[in-house]
Amino acid sequence: MKPASDRPFEASRFAWRTNTDGLTASDQAAEARFENVKESYKKALQAFELEDKRARKRYHEHEEDGRTTDTFGNWVMQNDPVWYSLKAEAQSQGAALTAAGAAAFGQAYIEKHGQEESKMNREGFDAGFYYEAF
């Protein structure tokens, strides 16, 4: 199994986190908070995806030039602090989204989240990577 950092990040893999089809909000204010957090989450994922692409391009250039033999995870730790910062922000926004979803939609959101996260974990495992939540 490879670490999750060896797999290029794709924000689209996490679209399920913002899908509330079939769920009913407990009140309009909670749903509005969820919508605000959802937008912040999507922006954080997009920013991280862009930086991940940039970092991987630089990493491959360093590999080709013989400047590194490190794995991407080790290389990025030393060479791209912005990558780590944006990753942490995306994960923080993901946690905020989960909390807002639970507050707005209750147990139904938590159950849906658990099912989808389990599916993502299996898909990552089948592809040879550990799962990492966002």
Brief synopsis:
The chain is mainly α and 134 residues long. It has four helices and no strands. The protein is elongated.
The assigned structural class equals: mainly alpha
Rounded to the nearest angstrom, the distance between the terminal CA atoms is: 19 Å
Low-confidence stretches: none
Q: Which descriptor suits the 3D outline?
A: elongated
Helix content: 55-70%
The radius of gyration is 17 Å
The overall number of domains is 1
Secondary-structure element string: HHHH
Largest sheet: none
Task: Provide the descriptors you would attach to this structure in a database record.
134 residues; mainly alpha
Describe the structure.
The protein is mainly alpha-helical. The protein has one domain (26-127). It has 4 helices and no strands. Helix 1 packs antiparallel against helix 3 (81-105) and helix 3 packs antiparallel against helix 4 (107-126). The mean pLDDT is 97.
Helices and strands, with pairings:
Elements: H1 28-64, H2 72-79, H3 81-105, H4 107-126
